[in-house]
Amino acid sequence: MKKTLSLIILTVGLLIGGIVATGEPPNFNEYTTYRGSPHPPPKASSAETAVDDIIDIILAQGFSGAIILILFFWTYRTDKYNRTAQEENFNKFIQISQECSSNMGSVNTRLENIEREIEATKQLEMLQATRKG
User: Does pTM surpass 0.90?
Assistant: First the structure.
């Protein structure tokens, strides 16, 4: 009973509050007056002025803009050096891999020869053991 009464009071309160809040018509005149922007209107940009705009933005930053430029060139140079070093290392890896493959072939042949010799030695020992026994 108390729950339903409190829910009814809450519902009526929300309805009355909603009617009062939406009862006033909006003041459209408040939004139609032009107040002026503190920022100047943007310039029409083209491909030629894009580079100039970027340079102006970086120069306007002062010391931090200079740091950004220095970091950009350092990153570019380091990345270029790392790419060439990576290509050289990859080429060395391919060369070493080919050498190892050819050496593994010769090692495989030698192991097969050793296996044959061991089998032959075992057969000789078995023959000699049967003759003695």
Answer: no
Q: Where are the domains of the chain?
A: 56-133
Task: In whole angstroms, give the CA distance from residue 76 to residue 66.
Answer: 15
Spatial separation of the C-alpha atoms in residues 116 and 120, rounded to whole Å? 6
Helices 47-61 and 63-132, axial angle in degrees (round to 10): 100
| Tokens describing residue 96 | 């070493």
* Contact in structure between 53 and 45 (CB atoms under 8 Å): yes
C-beta atoms surrounding 44 within 10 Å: 6
Q: Which residue has the tokens 């108390």?
A: 2
Distance CA 63, CA 58 (A): 9
* 61-85: pLDDT as tens digits: 888 888 888 999 999 999 999 999 9
